[in-house]
Design a protein that fits this description.
Layout (H helix, E strand, L loop, with lengths): L27 E7 L3 H6 L3 E2 L22 E2 L2 E7 H32 L16
Antiparallel strand pairs: 1-4, 2-4, 3-4
Length: about 130
């Protein structure tokens, strides 16, 4: 009687992700951005990334044409310094705080005009990330 060969199955296989980056600079945040939003994002400090900067120069799924920019269909790879991203986030947080303060003030004014007593403040629950 001959021994039957053992068959092993690969259970951790998944389809290759052309958007996954393996070679990045730790000082930058990377993001795939739609081509139609590129001008707006450039105003926010995002810069396009070349294929060879992130090790995608030989990946046929990225930048199928003659361009040296890392692109995949309608997406373009961009980077922004992490410090600039934090400054942008702080700016948006302060802007949102001013808007909430104004909203709370307007809530109390409208209540007084309508003859109601209003108490408390307006708050927004933060979603878990």
């Amino acid at each position: 009687m001959t021994a039957k060969p053992k068959i092993t199955l690969a259970t951790d296989w998944h389809t290759p992700d052309p958007l996954k980056l393996t070679k990045t600079d730790k000082n930058f945040k990377y993001r795939w951005i739609r081509k139609n939003e590129l001008e707006l994002r450039r105003q926010q400090g995002w810069q396009t990334v070349l294929r060879d900067e992130v090790g995608l120069e030989k990946d046929s799924r990225v930048s199928r044409g003659e361009t040296s920019v890392a692109e995949c269909n309608e997406l373009v790879l961009c980077k922004r310094p992490k410090a600039m991203g934090e400054a942008h986030r702080n700016y948006l947080d302060q802007k949102n705080k001013r808007l909430l303060d104004a909203l709370g003030s307007q809530f109390h004014q409208e209540g007084e005009r309508a003859g109601f007593s209003t108490y408390g403040s307006v708050t927004v629950e933060e979603k878990a990330q």
